Amino acid sequence: MPTKMRFEKALLVLVVLTALAVLGQKWVLQETFVIDPTEGLDNRLYNDRLSGGTSQSEMISGAADSYVWRCDLHATGYAYPHCGFEVRLTGSYTQGINFSNYRTVKIWLDYEGPNDSVRIFLRNYNSRYSVASDDTTTKYNQLEFSPAKDQAYYEFSFGDFFVANWWLREKNIPPQLSHPEFNNIVSFEVQTGSGHLPGEHRFVLRRVELVGQRFDTADWYLGIIVVWVVIVLLFLAYRVLELTGEVRERKKREQELMDVNLFLDSRSRELEAKTKTDALTGAFNREGIEESIKNGLWEWRHSAKPLSIVMMDIDHFKKINDQYGHAVGDDILAGISALVKEHIRATDLFARWGGEEFVLVCRNTRIHYAQHIAEKLRAMLAEHKFDGELQVTASFGVATLTGGRSVEQLFKAADDALYQAKKKGRNRVLKEGDD
Fold this sequence. Notes:
Layout: H1 3-23, H2 25-29, E1 30-35, E2 43-47, E3 56-59, E4 67-73, E5 83-88, E6 102-112, E7 118-124, E8 139-145, E9 154-157, E10 162-163, H3 165-171, E11 185-192, E12 199-213, H4 217-242, H5 245-268, H6 290-303, E13 307-314, H7 317-324, H8 326-342, E14 349-354, E15 357-363, H9 367-383, E16 394-400, H10 407-423, E17 429-431
Parallel strand pairs: 16-17
Antiparallel strand pairs: 1-12, 2-5, 3-4, 4-12, 5-11, 6-9, 6-12, 7-8, 7-11, 8-10, 13-15, 13-16, 14-15
Helix pairs in contact: 1-4, 4-5, 5-6, 7-8
């Protein structure tokens, strides 16, 4: 079958699949979290007695498919009488559910009482302001509305929520942390309205639906684009193999560049930053090392100049974050980057590969000298004290470009050596092939 005909058929299939992916993205991506009595989630009823009030509240036995409770708010003993009902979404007050990609909340709720509004809360735990032993330190993402009789359900956007002002004042929350957060929701609450009117308040909560997406729509479309790019690049690569002579030599250079782009794009398509410098550490990011790798490839293929890379991973970095906090961890990453950049050659390029992992591109450098550079950096880091007291170590993997090896294979060889260095006890340098 002619190449053109095969390509046209493959293109038609891809167009059909793309149309299905675009039209069906709502059904594919949509995700719903349901709260109802049949789910058996932990719950509790509370009132203002812990604050000195005298209000009373009690659960009322009723249908198995509803939460039913009543409150008698008293105006004595506490200026803001209230009661509420809380459903814990998980078995923990610190480990909740990420609703960052959710868009709407639907509530099936009946209310009778003197207030003209009720409040709902989505409470978020964040170690920057929350304390595990004090559930009042979870952020009160609040929404208040006026219920209407005979209305089947209420639907609100996550954008309608705001952080309760009384909580911000009571917990002395700084402005940069005062915005709503939904990345670690631990509980859902229904509470009497801000009018705090005394009397009997009756509630029937039948169901709550949190509706969102498994991941962002933009990432879905980005994935479609990436598939198209990969298919087009594969077709171009196939066409390059059919060229001869001078055209083949010219296209060979293009294929090398596409090889680099394919590898870097596949590893970094989740990133949205377009700059070449990592904002936290000041080191280059993955896009920043692209030009250095291209030049190193060209020098190796046309001038036989060696190209080596060093992969570096900070040992036990998670423990540092857990013990000292992410702010200290970020300072250490920035300090390591500054320290390394002071002690490498002008021709070397240092980049952050992701998390606590870094890569050093050494052009015109044989593997044994690259290993010597890595050992020098390892010893320097092990002796250095960050913030006057903290010491960290790192593990290193070294590899060089040989034979018909691709860029992806070069990075994998360095990554495998790094894995062996960590497996053998960390704080050491191993090159590819070392036992």
